[in-house]
Write a structure and sequence with these properties.
mainly beta, DNA-binding
Length: 165
Amino acid sequence: MVAKELLGKFLVRRVGKKTIVGMITEVEAYVGPDDKASHASRGKTPRTKVMFGRAGYWYVYLVYGMHHCLNIVTEKESYPAAILIRSVHSVSGPGRVSKYFHIDKKLSERSSSRASGLWIEDRGVRDVKIKSGKRIGVDYAGRWKHKPWRLTLEQHRDKKNHPIV
DNA sequence: GGAGTGATGACA
DNA sequence: GTCATCACTCCA
């Protein structure tokens, strides 16, 4: 799954002359039309249609009237799936990540690229140790709430081969 | 544990 | 048009 590949990658934001960077440390996968935890399980709607599109596009939405959540669309066209970026190194929680990177829903349906001002870079982090667990905040999702689709980066090695927690 | 907050989607 | 719900965060 693509979710694993995101851990240890860097999220890069360009806004004005400022660049904000952080390593992705926690993600959650929302996969397929039947995943009751996924917004896509209610079918294609104006908000979620981007999840049914091509991979590599941002899906950003507002929850609880105040927090934005950042997701990247994965999988093939017409098969809805996205990865929620829950944490970046030293920034915990999807709402706080969006605040830190100045992300709001204007970025939704943009592609992950320099042109959009928000993209992902591989900066050579390797030997990642990944832990999986249940997703957060999806108790309503019946049997889907048990899926171990939340992945956290436990440990990795930097460019000089030093372990980092 | 509980409030804040407003877009979204379902239904009429 | 109404209404309930919500992939969260903060404070007690």
